[in-house]
């Protein structure tokens, strides 16, 4: 593999505490050398990228995406989903197991990572917590882990039974895997298609109460408390309610291993954005009340939130062009996450760039125990994002790399233009200056 | 809002909610809220004018124009009165109902709408079991769409005909409505508010004319958050107390088809919320009694009240034809370029 030198860029590597002009040499898929401007020693013969005026950072990591393969290639494929990820600055994604069939076997886990899938960046499968994600019999986590799974979840099919969830947390802890829970007491949300509140009442839509999320988080935290001796790790996916965040905050004060992620749509939008039945504002968990959205922003700024993840959930156009109640849940997110985080968290709410990038790289890498990723030091993987932090641009869903365009952010102003995304030393995405 | 949400410490300026693009067509009637008071007045005036017009003259107004009625739910009053209204103005109507069409074969609302447009439909009147279906149909066809009731959401022509009925009794002669037209008037809406599109359209419309709306019913059928739906809306769970304050009482049917497993004690319901002759005489002897139909006699109202002197239920039905003539005429004469008619 040829060597690649990134010259003249401003390196921000929050995990290593670096925020300086640096030249970086990539070789054989790894970071070979980092030195002050013009000081690389081994760059002879290397191709180079001119990163002057640009920010260089560890490639982004999205720990919550739906790539739809196997089984639903008409929505997205691993190839198109990872191309979208690369365009969004991501070099690793964790792929949720609610595929068809469900990823509950080492065979499917390996199939997803096979070179034939044509992934532009690294795909880390997340294994189903239970057989068929039916919430009954737990999987063989050791086998799933050795096939490449980085966490377990029944995302979208929350584990309701206390006994099964306890067993899941205990078994995952024994093999050192995180349990990701889509926290929703589905007994309280049946028939609901948006947040329960004045807006759902006005629209005549059946609502999903915020307690369906917070109650499940509280239940899970009780189980983690029972299992504290074995350090069971609970990760709350796409947190959307103030009450759930408070429960996470309290659990952490009590010394429990409880982490959480928030999506850009939950810290930017509210139930009001459903407007008049916009199916691109329909997802699960639903957009919540303004006070909940504000609580997400506060918790991100205060450092309570560990990770920003997209819950990238592509659906074909015809699936969303239907009656609101009949539309599937979910929106795409890989191509808008960085632009929205920089536009809002950094520019509007003044979060330092390094902290924003950390939420999108170093922190998910640490959480999923992805060794050598989420940082750029000699020897780590050559997963690099090079972007212009000042550039503003308008997102056009039509022009995206994803197979689907179900997004509420079409036409929104984004900040920070990705110039190159480098995955293990290969340029996975580049855009003109 | 979650009860535990903490107030923001920082001044956050989150992204604004974008303005609604609806209605795309100025002739559409998706929600009664889309109508300005001027438009509302114009519809009321045209309803009277068209009702009084010579039938032969009237039948030339929309001669040979094409109106499609697309019905995904059963209907007697709405369907028949829209059809009579359109035909009374000379339009050709065609009825597509979910049980005798390609909808049964799985055709989407979008495709059905585009098919009707290709067949020459100039406006579509839609009754649908899903909330928001008329908005989807309008966005996809860009035709004037008239909402004939969408799920539990809205039924704007019902609210207009209720308004015409209320005005005729409480403000006789008034057709040009203002924000004070119904000042001092209290209208109680009683019963299954949660599942009622008629209640939603009325509670959003009547306060804009100065009326106070009292919602009355048990918690299962009337959640507390209903009071936050808009200004001028309050909850009064004591039916007798609501009656004592009301000049108009709108009774609603329990929508058994939308209860979704909810269990109700009907005997207890009747004891608390059935409108009986005794109750009416004791607490609201002057009020008019409305009901959008269908009536379940002996449940929400007794036969004596439904047929009694205070009942204006059949007047509502008659007003439905007049209002729908005005609304269909508006749909087919509003110009896409020239803004709202």
Description:
The complex is a heterodimer of chains A (433) and B (341). Chain A has two domains: 4-56 and 381-430, Urease, subunit C, domain 1, CATH 2.30.40; 59-367, TIM Barrel (Alpha-Beta Barrel). Chain A is 28% helix and 23% strand. Chain A has helices at 78-87, 106-113, 141-146, 162-174, 186-189, 198-203, 211-226, 242-253, 264-268, 290-302, 317-320, 337-348, 353-360, 362-367, and strands spanning 4-13, 18-27, 30-35, 47-50, 55-58, 60-65, 90-95, 122-125, 127-128, 151-153, 178-181, 194-195, 207-208, 234-236, 258-262, 307-308, 384-394, 413-423, 426-430. In chain A, helix 4 crosses helix 7 and helix 7 packs parallel to helix 8. The model of chain A has no long low-confidence stretch (mean pLDDT 97). Chain B has two domains: 32-155 and 320-332, Aspartate/ornithine carbamoyltransferase (Rossmann fold, 3-Layer(aba) Sandwich), CATH 3.40.50; 156-316, Aspartate/ornithine carbamoyltransferase (Rossmann fold), CATH 3.40.50.1370. Helices cover 36% and strands 13% of the residues of chain B. In chain B, the strands form two sheets. Chain B has a five-stranded parallel beta sheet with strand order 7-6-5-8-9, with helices on both faces. A four-stranded parallel beta sheet of chain B has the order 2-1-3-4, with helices on both faces. Classes of the chains: A alpha/beta (433), B alpha/beta (341). The interface between A and B is large, with 45 and 45 residues.
What's the quick description here?
The complex is a heterodimer of chains A (433) and B (341). Chain A is 28% helix and 23% strand.
């Amino acid at each position: 593999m040829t060597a690649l030198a990134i010259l003249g860029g401003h390196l921000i590597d929050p995990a290593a505490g670096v925020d300086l002009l640096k030249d970086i040499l990539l070789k054989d898929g790894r970071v070979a050398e980092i030195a002050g401007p013009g000081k690389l020693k081994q760059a002879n013969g290397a191709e180079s990228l001119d990163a002057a005026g640009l920010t260089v950072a560890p490639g982004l990591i999205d720990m919550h995406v739906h790539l739809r393969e196997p089984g639903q290639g008409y929505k997205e494929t691993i190839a198109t989903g990872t191309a979208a990820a690369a365009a969004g600055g991501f070099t690793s994604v964790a792929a949720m197991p609610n595929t068809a069939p469900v990823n509950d076997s080492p065979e499917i886990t390996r199939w997803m990572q096979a070179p034939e899938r044509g992934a532009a960046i690294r795909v880390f499968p997340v294994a189903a917590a239970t057989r068929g994600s039916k919430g009954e019999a737990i999987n063989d986590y050791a086998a799933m882990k050795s096939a490449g799974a980085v966490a377990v979840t029944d995302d979208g099919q929350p584990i309701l039974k206390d006994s099964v969830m306890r067993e899941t947390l205990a078994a995952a802890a024994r093999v050192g895997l995180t349990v990701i829970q889509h926290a929703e007491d589905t007994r309280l949300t049946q028939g609901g298609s948006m947040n329960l509140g004045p807006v759902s009442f006005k629209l005549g839509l059946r609502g999903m109460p915020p307690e369906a999320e917070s109650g499940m988080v509280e239940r899970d935290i009780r189980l983690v408390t029972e299992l504290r001796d074995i350090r069971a790790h609970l990760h709350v996916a796409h947190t959307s309610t103030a009450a759930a965040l408070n429960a996470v905050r309290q659990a952490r004060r009590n010394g429990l291993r409880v982490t959480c992620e928030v999506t850009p749509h939950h810290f930017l939008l509210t139930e009001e954005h459903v407007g008049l039945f916009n199916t691109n504002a329909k997802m699960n968990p639903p957009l919540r009340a303004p006070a909940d959205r504000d609580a997400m922003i506060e918790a991100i700024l205060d450092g309570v939130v560990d990770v920003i993840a997209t819950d990238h959930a592509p659906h074909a156009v015809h699936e969303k062009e239907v009656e609101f109640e009949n539309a599937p849940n979910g929106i795409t997110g890989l191509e808008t996450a960085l632009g929205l985080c920089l536009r809002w968290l950094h520019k509007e709410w003044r979060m330092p760039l390094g902290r924003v990038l950390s939420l999108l790289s170093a922190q998910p890498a640490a959480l999923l125990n992805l060794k050598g990723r989420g940082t750029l030091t000699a020897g780590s993987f050559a997963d690099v994002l090079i972007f212009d932090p000042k550039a503003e641009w308008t997102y056009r869903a039509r022009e995206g790399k994803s197979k689907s365009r179900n997004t509420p952010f079409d036409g929104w102003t984004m900040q920070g233009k990705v110039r190159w995304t480098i995955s293990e030393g290969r340029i996975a995405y580049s855009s003109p200056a | 809002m979650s009860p535990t949400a903490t107030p923001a410490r920082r001044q956050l300026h989150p992204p604004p909610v974008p303005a609604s693009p609806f209605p795309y067509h100025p002739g559409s009637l998706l929600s009664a809220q889309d109508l300005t008071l001027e438009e509302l007045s114009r519809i009321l005036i045209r309803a009277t004018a068209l009702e009084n017009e010579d039938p032969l003259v009237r039948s030339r107004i929309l001669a040979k124009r094409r109106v499609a009625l697309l019905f995904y739910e059963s209907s007697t009053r709405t369907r028949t009165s829209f059809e009579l209204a359109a035909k009374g103005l000379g339009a050709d109507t065609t009825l597509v109902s979910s049980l005798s069409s390609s909808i049964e074969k799985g055709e989407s609302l979008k495709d059905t709408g585009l098919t009707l447009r290709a067949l020459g439909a100039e406006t579509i009147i839609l009754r649908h079991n899903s909330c928001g279906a008329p908005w989807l149909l309008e966005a996809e066809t860009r035709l004037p769409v008239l909402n004939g009731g969408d799920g539990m959401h809205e039924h704007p022509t019902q609210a207009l005909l209720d308004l015409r009925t209320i005005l005729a009794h409480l403000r006789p002669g008034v057709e040009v409505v203002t924000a004070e037209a119904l000042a001092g008037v209290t209208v109680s809406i009683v019963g299954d508010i949660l599942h009622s599109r008629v209640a939603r359209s009325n509670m959003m419309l009547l306060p804009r004319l100065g009326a106070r709306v009292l919602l009355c019913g048990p918690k299962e059928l009337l959640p507390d958050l209903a009071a936050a739906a808009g200004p001028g809306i309050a909850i009064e769970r004591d039916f007798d107390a609501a009656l004592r304050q009301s000049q108009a009482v709108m009774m609603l049917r329990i929508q058994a088809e939308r209860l979704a497993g909810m269990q109700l004690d009907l005997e207890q319901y009747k004891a608390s919320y059935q409108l009986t002759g005794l109750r009416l005489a004791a607490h609201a002897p002057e009020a008019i009694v409305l009901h959008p139909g269908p009536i379940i006699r002996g449940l929400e109202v007794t036969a004596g009240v439904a047929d009694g002197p205070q009942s204006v239920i059949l007047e509502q039905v008659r007003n439905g034809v007049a209002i729908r003539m005005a609304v269909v005429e508006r749909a087919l004469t509003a110009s896409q370029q020239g803004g709202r008619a």
